[in-house]
């Protein structure tokens, strides 16, 4: 275990770091089989003085000086925030095997825990963030949905991109846009580069087009291989009470927000 590079930070309700942690077990959960609490084991945590006092204090001290936890922050290999997960309460703790200055902490784990089946997608991001477009294309539907989840959560852990001037031309590679999820992955990368975010549903896309997410309207979106998406997204919606297809709904939002789409 590399003791120089923490993988997680334990954060309080005010955003302060309570401890730097080398690893955690139970971050990726199996589907729930009962109503019991889900826990996470935060390993080799180097506590702040406040956390150290809390763990080492009496029960009366802890009652008079409660900790309001906010979450467990996952870091990437460069030490940058990747995502926050909700942690509600410390249940128990013990000295770590690395020495008394560190502790292993068991806490109640939150509702937003990623599924065990998607761990490989998170590990891909934690090892190295995307540096080329379409790196998500190797995954099936579940993996692509989780990739989009990471895109969104990672984006909101960082300062958003500065909006580029109006009139720009962006290029959407549509060859892998075979469902709604992959459209949002592709348009995010068209606007903001590999791993970029530009919405995850129609409402979020509309919000992004209002500014603050990397692009200023009016702009032009050149969508290559658009027939792939037209075929896939039309098929998904054609049986729903004559509602517009997903493909048509996307075009409508672009038109309403003054985006010229060139379908190739």
Number of helices: 8
Q: Any idea what the CATH superfamily of the largest domain is called?
A: Barstar-like
The computed structural class is alpha+beta
Assign the CATH architecture of the largest domain: 2-Layer Sandwich
Largest sheet: 6 strands, antiparallel, barrel
Q: Give the overall form.
A: elongated
Tag the structure with descriptive keywords.
single chain, Barnase, Chain D, 2 domains, 6-stranded antiparallel β-barrel, 3-stranded parallel β-sheet, elongated
Short description:
The chain has 264 residues and is α+β, with helices and mostly antiparallel strands.
Structure, described:
The protein is of the alpha+beta class. It has two domains: 8-109, no CATH class; 130-263, 2-Layer Sandwich (Barnase, Chain D), CATH 3.30.370. The chain is built from eight helices and nine strands. Helix 4 packs parallel to helix 5 (180-192). The longest helix is centred in the middle third of the chain and has 15 residues, at 141-155. The mean pLDDT is 90.
